[in-house]
Design brief:
The protein is α/β, with parallel strands linked by helices. It is 37% helix and 17% strand. A hairpin with a 2-residue loop joins strand 4 (104-109) and strand 5.
């Protein structure tokens, strides 16, 4: 009897360690509970670390303090979780998430693993600020299209018309938009049921020749992500000081055009050649955790 009771207590302790936050309100994430953590939170930051890495050891108390502050603000809402993965114990997860160095903080938003990782300051304030900013609504509401005429942005536009902000199809749009907000600018008009839900893409508001209507499953985040990835991420991306490290870590070959910014034609000719000769080499598909 006592032996059975001890076994049940041991099992309960093991399960509590598997699914509950560790000290500092961050989750100890493994291949056994990663789906549980990712599925139950809108945004998850995953710190991949090794106890053999001094930089990991230095970051850990900072990360735990940030987790505590964020838990005090958002704990229990399903909005955010901070997790940590011991790569010495989880080599499979390290491989699945394509970890090339320690420590690395991956961003998982609505089950989608963002290619861009956290590269901000390694301070409590910076991590907290980043997480809260990432949770801001990625979609701007408008009443009339005239409101969009004064936009000063280089981003492409995605414009949705939805019945309400509680509609399942709008929630799928919002989840997809949160993962693509760095590449496109998202807008919505709520119609109150006057007309079907719709979603369009435009390179520029007044260039109707670039207008494209989404014809896929309006309720599928995966299909929306695939469509937005094709539309919002240019075939030829500008290489800058701020994104160079991110692009090189994709571990793909580079074909680079060096040109005068005033020379617009060279850029168009370059893109035309890429479309004609290199499309099979490109892979911008979204990545989902397993």
């Amino acid at each position: 009897m006592h032996q059975k009771l001890f076994s049940w207590l041991a099992l309960a302790v093991a399960l509590s360690q598997l699914f509950m936050p560790a000290t500092g309100e961050s989750y100890q994430v493994s291949r056994h509970n990663v789906s549980e953590v990712v599925d139950s939170n809108e945004l998850v930051l995953l710190l991949f670390y090794s106890n053999r890495c001094k930089y990991s050891v230095q970051l850990m108390p900072i990360y735990e303090s940030a987790a505590s502050q964020l838990h005090s603000t958002l704990g229990g809402t399903g909005k955010l979780a901070l997790g940590k993965v011991d790569c010495d114990l989880e080599p499979e997860m390290e491989s699945n998430y394509d970890i090339g160095k320690y420590p690395t903080i991956k961003i998982v938003r609505n089950k989608y693993v963002n290619k861009k990782e956290y590269r901000g300051q390694r301070s409590v304030e910076a991590i907290v600020s980043f997480a809260l900013e990432e949770l801001l609504d990625p979609i701007q509401e408008f009443v009339s299209l005239n409101e969009l005429n004064d936009l000063n942005t280089r981003k492409y536009l995605v414009i949705g018309h939805y019945e309400s902000n509680s509609h399942d199809e709008y929630m799928a749009y919002r989840r997809a938009a949160s993962n693509m907000k760095e590449h496109c600018q998202f807008h919505v008009k709520f119609t109150g049921g006057n007309g079907p839900n719709s979603l369009t893409f435009q390179e520029h508001l007044n260039h109707t020749d670039s207008l494209s209507l989404y014809t896929g499953n309006m309720s599928s985040q995966e299909e929306l992500m695939e469509w937005l990835t094709m539309k919002c991420i240019p075939i030829v991306r500008e290489l800058t000081f701020s994104n160079a490290e991110e692009l090189t870590e994709e571990a793909k070959l580079f074909v680079i055009l060096f040109h005068n910014p005033q020379d617009k034609q060279s850029g168009k000719d370059f893109e035309r050649v890429v479309r004609a000769e290199l499309m099979d080499e490109l892979d911008n598909r979204p990545t989902y955790p397993s």
